[in-house]
Design goal:
alpha+beta, seven-stranded mixed sheet, six-stranded mixed sheet, 17 helices
């Protein structure tokens, strides 16, 4: 009696759910195979990292501020969303005013107003509010550390006051999805009930929610931005965390689009006529290092040695060329890269020398444990990649053990911080980061006061000199002057080897050639509105 491997079992289960591919029934229906193992949280603040935001958070919902995802030739920038514009008070730079877009309605027909925005901020920030949701707060609170208070001045005007002047506030608010207060009341003030019948203002409406199986969405035909009304009849999201399962589903016609195809399948997929879409985007793939007492990473010689021991060109070859070797925390061509003095490169001889200076050698190898996931948004191909790094480090006398967990569990470890029991004694966490803006790219990872539970400084790093530069960024509202500070910050990131800096992703996704209209933005987020399925040739 034979036993099916897990990925084949996943394919058979999916076939039973949706039926075998029939071209005549697939017109206008896009079926996406995600790397996540479950449907992301549908209540507003999606989990499962950037993939959850991309496929649920920014389809069903909108934020006050949005990303411009209409271009593939330049990094995405901020544009108005549910707020038509925003200004900071020139006298009191803690005080921001947002003008609410008129005429916007939630999917249930209720109006979006400044009061609805306040209600949504309360659901994340006020534990005593009836609508407070710990699950959404865990996803959203760390995104908006600048917010001190907020109020509706009138139905169409929102005021937000920050704890200190902070020019990065608009970048923080782009992640805060707005859910319908009226729908929450209608379903009995239950977020569990709301998850099955969510209501946002976004271009897509959820029509079916089957945890760990699939979610289905249809266009919001009355969406406030006519240019972003989806062209498809329906979109289906399917969790397929195994790369082989995703590729097999695409080949068999059960899926039209997959995230992160297995690198060794890319050439054969291209040969078979499938489209492989790639683009540079603000992403890195790192080990985030613990700096608590007793961590081996408190020694800069160890941090530099491990960065010198990683064969990034070899790793790129392993990935079928679908990576950019890191020379810093930011991509080599990033506008804030600066001119670091430490060269991130492959030099195992120099790595052994630094480790010897730090007291490690053949008779006393460095041994430590890193938390990694088996898949996940932005994580690329974490198992083979980490195995490759493990071999690299073994060659210079560093023995790495891995704590392998599911992606959402890794996110929970990251949010809890290196001191938490859930971190299981690891001294590092393999995590991919969005580099789209000053706060998300740099500040949130290392600022002294952004450790758990208020922020994502997982390793408890704290350096007054770095904090001073972070404060300078937040107090500098002129983009040119702000960029100069950001370059100095990145130089310190690299020169102090604050992370193990490995590669940058090129955001590969594979799709059936019938999928048309997709514009791959230089962003973790993508617009699915222009996508359509072409009719088969007759």
């Amino acid at each position: 009696m034979s036993t099916l491997p897990p990925w084949r079992s996943a394919i058979l289960s999916f076939a039973l759910l949706l039926g075998m591919h029939d071209a005549s029934s697939a017109q206008g229906v896009l079926r996406i195979g995600m790397t996540a193992s479950d449907i992301p949280l549908t209540t507003g603040q999606a989990d499962n990292g950037g993939e959850g935001i991309r496929f649920v958070g920014q389809t069903i919902y909108d934020a006050l501020i949005a990303w411009d995802l209409t271009h593939s030739d330049k990094p995405a920038d901020l544009i108005p969303g549910l707020a038509t514009n925003w200004t900071v008070d020139p006298v009191d730079r803690n005080r921001w005013t947002f003008n609410i877009r008129p005429g916007v309605k939630f999917h249930d027909g209720s109006d979006f107003t400044a009061d609805a925005a306040v209600w949504n901020l309360d659901k994340l920030l006020r534990p005593d509010a009836p609508q407070y949701d710990p699950r959404q707060s865990a996803q959203g609170k760390v995104r908006i550390p600048a917010v001190a208070s907020y109020r509706a001045i009138d139905p169409m005007t929102l005021e937000i006051v920050t704890k200190a002047p902070d020019a990065t506030l608009p970048y923080q608010l782009v992640y805060i999805a707005m859910s319908s207060p009226a729908q929450w009341e209608k379903v009995g003030r239950s977020w569990d009930a709301f998850a099955k019948q969510p209501s946002g203002t976004g271009p897509w409406k959820l029509t079916l929610f089957a945890p760990r199986e699939r979610a289905e969405m249809v266009p919001n035909d009355s969406y406030w931005d006519a240019s972003r009304v989806p062209k498809l009849d329906k979109m289906v999201l399917v969790p397929l965390p195994d790369a082989n399962a995703r590729v097999a589903a695409l080949r068999s016609g059960q899926i039209d689009w997959i995230e992160a195809p297995s690198p060794d399948a890319v050439a054969s997929l291209r040969k078979a006529g499938f489209t492989i879409a790639t683009n540079s985007y603000p992403h890195n793939w790192t080990w985030h290092l613990s700096r608590i007492a007793g961590s081996p990473w408190n020694d800069i010689r160890v941090r530099k040695a491990v960065n010198l021991a990683v064969d990034r060109e070899g790793l790129k070859e392993l990935l079928g060329g679908l990576a950019v070797p890191a020379t810093g925390f930011l991509p080599p061509d990033d506008r804030w890269f600066g001119n670091p003095s430490f060269q991130v490169r492959y030099d195992p001889g120099a790595a052994r020398k630094l480790l010897a200076e730090a007291g490690y050698g053949p008779g006393r190898p460095l041994r430590t444990k890193i938390a990694i996931s088996a898949s996940g948004s932005g994580q690329m191909q974490p198992l083979p990649m980490n195995e490759f790094i493990q071999q690299n480090l073994a060659e210079v006398g560093v023995q790495i053990d891995y704590e392998v967990v599911e992606w959402n569990t890794l996110i929970n470890i990251w949010r809890a911080g290196a001191k938490a029991d859930i971190s299981r004694g690891v001294t590092g966490i393999n995590y991919s980061y969005s580099l789209q803006d000053p706060y998300s790219a740099l500040i949130r990872h290392l600022k002294c006061d952004l450790t758990a539970p208020v922020g994502s400084n997982w390793g408890y790093y704290c350096d007054p000199a770095m904090d001073k530069m972070f404060d300078d960024v937040r107090n500098t509202f002129d983009p040119i002057q702000q960029a100069k500070v950001l370059m100095k910050i990145h130089e310190k990131f690299v020169d102090d080897a604050l992370f193990v800096m490995v590669v940058h992703d090129v955001n590969p996704r594979a799709m059936n050639p019938s999928v048309k209209g997709f514009v791959q933005a230089q962003s973790w987020n993508q617009s699915l509105s222009p996508v359509y399925i072409s009719a088969p040739e007759r």
